[in-house]
Amino acid sequence: MKVLIAIDSFKGSASSIELNRAVAEKLNQLDFVESTTEIAIADGGEGTLASVQHSLNGEILEIPTIDLMGKPINAKVLSFRAEGKRQALIESADTMGLDLIKPSAETVKAASSKGLGLLIKEIEQRGFQKVITLGGSGVTDGGLGLLKEFGATFLDRQQNDLEEGNLLLDASEIEISTIRFPNIPIIVANDVTNPYFGNQGAFQVFSQQKGATAEQIRQLDANAEKLSQTILKELNIDLATLQGAGAAGGLGGALAILGAKMDAGFKLVTELIDFEDRLKTADVVVTGEGSIDQQSLFGKVPFAIAELAKKYQKPVIAICGKKSITNNESSPFSGIFSIQTKPISLPDAMEKATTLKNAAELVSEIFITAFQLSKNGGIGHGFK
After folding, report:
1. Do 187 and 293 fall within a single domain?
2. Left, alpha or beta for 165 (phi > 0: left; psi -120 to 50: alpha)?
3. Which helix H or strand E contains 242, and what residues bound it?
4. Could you please report the per-residue DSSP string of 131-165?
5. Does the residue 201 lie in any domain?
6. Is the pLDDT of residue 9 over 80?
7. Do 89 and 56 form a contact (C-beta atoms < 8 A)?
8. Contacts of 187 (CB under 8 A, 6+ apart)
9. 315 exposed, middle or buried (CB, 10 Å; 0-12, 13-18, 19+)?
């Protein structure tokens, strides 16, 4: 039996790489398991850079830039070759992550996407032929700091040139003609469908969790709408309807202005690492994540893997730390199992050693049971 193991991280407990390794080591002790293939997996969010590096053997570079508050930092960039091109993968959260600040009205005023603009410019200058950006952010500036690094000019109502901090709080006008568009393709891994502004836009939906007051949210949304009218008129890009423009505090929209293309995070990652071709050769797939619930049905890693495996009639078992969904006949999973063996507190359940031990032992027991049940009908039958 050939087993493909692609478990997403159990956030706060164990990484995809660690979970895959623990499960593979246990399964490799079983006589009927011919081989295991470990694929570090992610959907464009936390841990994606490490997952892709694990599969592609790329090089992690540290490139100087600034964080969302203007502090000098070294951002991690994955350098790799694919499609005959030297490509760079960056996580926006590395320079602008919400975890880098204590969200407040003051951080909303100060936080800027300038650092990501500096980083993309440096990547371009170093001769990379393609850049992929992913992940969230703690900024609410609509990507204006990034756009300013590429030459855009922003004026307030008194016609003053805006320079620092959250430009969107005061921006009344944008000058498009001064923008220098990047010479390399930019791909945005994005699973958010929110537009740039409006009731479902970046500012009304996400800014409060980043510390914005009701008045700041009103200002941000109103100014974003006004600037978007100029962008529609001059570039024919409609940020009011563009799905994903509201991602990462409006960065999706700003990058779209620079010509970036958006792609679903899981799709982009799996294409980079040739996941589908590797899945075809497996007999059984093991996946999972920290919590499997109703939300998991909307494109999260385990469900996306199960749907892809269904295409090739591969049985899929999913493991999780917390299960709050019932498997049924219409589910793409052969089974969904919690690794918890007894009542346990959340801190104890999230101990890395406990998670890895329980995950490995559970999967091993499932395979042994399935093998016993299917002795007379073929190994795979035990998972159907």
Report:
1. no
2. left
3. none
4. EEEE---S--STTHHHHHHTT-EEE-TT-PBP-SS
5. yes
6. yes
7. no
8. 130, 131, 132, 133, 260, 261, 262, 263, 268
9. buried
Quote the domain boundaries for residue 129.
Answer: 48-266
Largest interatomic CA distance in the chain: 82
Model pLDDT for residues 297-352, shown as the tens digit of each residue? 666 889 999 999 999 999 999 999 988 877 776 688 999 999 998 888 888 888 99
Q: Cβ distance 138 to 98 under 8 Å?
A: yes
Cβ pair 148, 220 in contact under 8 A: no
271 is a domain residue: no
Looking at the structure, tell me whether residues 110 and 217 fall in a common domain.
yes
Angle at 258 between CA 253 and CA 263, to 5 degrees: 60
Q: Is residue 11 part of a domain?
A: yes
Contacts of 305 (CB under 8 A, 6+ apart): 6, 41, 279, 285, 287, 316
312, 4 Cβ separation under 8 angstroms:
no
In sequence order, the β-bridge partners of residue 263 are 189
- C-alpha radius of gyration, the chain, whole number: 23
Q: Examine the domain organization and report whether 211 and 85 are in the same domain.
A: yes
Instruction: Check whether residue 295 and residue 194 sit in a common domain.
Output: no
CATH classification at residue 205: 3.90.1510.10
Amino acid making up residue 63: I
Structure pTM?
Answer: 0.84
d(CA 294, CA 58): 35
How is residue 292 annotated by DSSP? Answer: E
CATH number at residue 27: 3.40.50.10350
- According to DSSP, the residues that pair with 338 across neighbouring strands are 320
Same domain for 354 and 232: no
CA dist 277 and 6 (Å) reads: 14
- Looking at the fold, whether 34 and 107 belong to one and the same domain comes out as no
The rounded distance, in Å, linking the Cα atoms of 122 and 343 is 51
Residue carrying structure tokens 């994955």:
78
Does 145 fall in a domain? yes
